[in-house]
Design brief:
2 copies of one chain form a homodimer. The first copy, chain A, is α/β, with parallel strands linked by helices and 393 residues long. In chain A, 41% of the residues lie in helices and 12% in strands. The first copy, chain A, contains 14 helices and 12 strands.
């Protein structure tokens, strides 16, 4: 018999995917340029030419046996060294290759991190609003994910609720800053308080509570916003990175797990990831992509469009009277809907060819997410539709 | 605490990896060209120039947003269509895109196939000699792998032992033809008998027994050898393919799962794979690699070297009096060691700078594997060492 667990999962069709499919279908009717599709977190600017040039040069010049040969299960040693060196240079922690594990982007990094530091039955906490895929990521390991209710005033952390939920069963906490869907960047004060609580509770429980920090938006931070390096605040941090967003490279599935050198068993955790790969069929990201990334560690795509779009939308939404925390990074904004039912609001938005994702799936009903990784010209054209939608609520 | 299960796995260091490390270290002493390293199944011929040209052209000409954008979780639709069409054209089964799931090579294909058609506690059978990684692949899902003892006379299938072990608990059977480590290709007679037994037992048990067919060596078959298409024999077949071996592309991690269109729930199984990916952090192979493969479905690397090497080694080993089944494909040969203890034999071989893998890890103690994906010139130079080794036993 086929596995009922996965068969059942087919019923829970992703709301974002449904909205995206609606946008595509509607686009066929009225032209996709007339659909204000804010559904998907797909980068809207191309990969830097330097990255393309690196790939072409590797393909033209490097011995194909070496270029396309098996990578060791932890990643190509020279790539791990360069990633470590870049992290040390930029953030000051003494990473070495031994603390770096190359992964098929952030999903695989989180998948390995969870299996390394939790066991089935453990609890993992995250903070609403959160990326809805965290549920299968965590629950697929046999651990259980619980989301701490949001701090709606600022989308930092609701520490009272967190401390209540932080029982002895919790062995890992999963955070995402800059945050999808709120766009908010956790402040130093937030990270310091979080670290203090984790340290205190690790001692009280007699076991470490690991911090798994999902940072695919780390490089997409807007002017004047402080983006503290999470791993500097708490030793037992496993950082998950992806080149999907800031390098506009999502299809190539490349990222890494970087375990804080001060983390308990840091080097062993990385070695263990090689064993976890054997059980889940991971086996390294593409070797061409590993070698390409290693030569482009200090650049991003031209991500200025996201800040431009943030400025336009934040100004418009607040001027329309919507409650909205100003995003400090990413390409998301997460306003409060002008109707109590954000699913109904998302449905209503379709009437104006606006594709908005209700906050329910992120653990924040009553809010909605706009992914503004689209052309600025389209953002500007959408303002009239937004005004009409709000007026109609 | 870190997960003891994976920490414990670190103790069981791969014998093949240890031998390969020895070969590298010994190479530093005497020159790697003087080490007859038969340890690793790494292709020894380059990827076809046409594949490199496709990648360069895609990088130069295709819109980078589209080229490197997110692939749907089941794979890029046009790629799935082309893979299906090529299978239909070559093997006559009416595959459509709906039966194809693009994967990070065979490891990921097997990983998804197992999770789709088994549940924790189930038993999965395979046949010795078998690839040792099957143990973590299967056991990592919560099912249990058991290896049916080898048919030592031919390295086809020991059906008596199989029928004894084929209890109601078994929900999947995992085969590998052409076979690593024996090089043997299952005959039509073998596959027909296997299918008959599976059909009979599926009926008797009242549940389907799925056949998971791991076929990374499908294209590496020598002259005069019949290589039947496994899926044609049994409806409930899930075929796992990888471009690692025949296209010399192992580092790029690209392959697919093709579910026989006649398989019960074929299309649903593929859809379920998208859900399985969410739990294990898979998320598609590289989009560049998917698009590249789709344009090179009918070619392989120049794999003639493997047949040349097979001829030289088979002739030499048999003329030395070793018992040896002639490989019909792959780049492996699996002779009986001239000492009862094949681990001791492998140790002894090191004295002659011969790196041979004992059969124990493949479920066949007393035998040894030679991976002859090395230059023919080196194979020829190794013959003297082989003669000396055999004489010394």
């Amino acid at each position: 018999m086929i596995a009922k667990h996965y068969e059942d999962m087919l019923q829970g069709k992703s709301v974002i995917r449904q909205l995206s499919e609606f946008a595509t279908a509607r686009g066929k009717e009225i032209g996709y340029e007339n659909v204000f599709d804010y559904s998907l977190g797909n980068p809207s600017v191309p990969v830097p030419q330097a990255v393309t040039d690196t790939m072409i040069r590797l393909l033209q010049e490097k011995d194909p046996m070496e270029l396309h040969g098996y990578s060791p299960s932890l990643g190509i040693p020279s790539v791990r060294e360069k990633v470590a060196a870049s992290l040390e240079k930029r953030f000051g922690l003494p990473y070495t290759a031994d603390e770096i594990f190359m992964t098929s982007a952030a999903a695989a990094a989180i998948s390995h991190a969870l299996r390394a530091v939790t066991i089935p039955g453990d609890e993992v906490l995250t903070f609403a609003p959160c990326f809805s895929e965290y549920y299968p990521y965590v629950n697929g390991t046999g651990a259980h994910l619980k989301a701490v209710p949001a701090d709606l005033a600022s989308f930092q952390i609701n520490f009272n609720a967190f401390e209540e939920m932080l029982t002895e069963k919790v062995t890992a906490v999963l955070i995402n800053t800059p945050n999808n869907p709120s766009g908010v960047v956790y402040s130093s004060a937030t990270l310091k308080t979080l670290a203090d609580i984790l340290t205190k509770k690790s001692e009280a429980f007699g076991h470490p509570i690991y911090l798994i920090s999902d940072e695919p938006y780390r490089e997409i931070v807007f002017k004047g916003v402080e983006a503290p390096f999470v791993s500097s605040f708490y030793d037992n941090t496993l950082m998950c990175y992806s080149y999907s967003k800031a390098l506009s490279f999502p299809g190539e599935r490349i990222g890494y797990l970087a375990v804080n050198p001060a983390c308990k068993d840091a080097k062993k955790i990385v070695q263990m990831c090689g064993q976890i790969s054997r059980e889940i069929g991971h086996n390294c990201p593409s070797s061409l992509m590993q070698l390409t990334i290693a030569e482009n560690l200090y650049i991003t795509s031209d991500i200025s469009v996201y800040e431009t779009n943030r400025n336009i939308l934040y100004k418009e939404l607040t001027s329309l009277g919507l409650t909205c925390t100003e995003p400090g990074g990413t390409f998301y904004i997460f306003p409060k809907a002008p109707m109590a039912d954000s699913k109904a609001f998302s449905e209503k938005a379709k009437e104006f060819d606006l594709i908005l994702v209700p906050g329910d799936g992120f653990g924040c009903p009553g809010y909605f997410r706009m992914a503004y990784c689209i052309d600025t010209e389209k953002v500007e054209r959408s303002l009239d539709a937004i005004r009409k939608l709000v007026a109609a609520c």
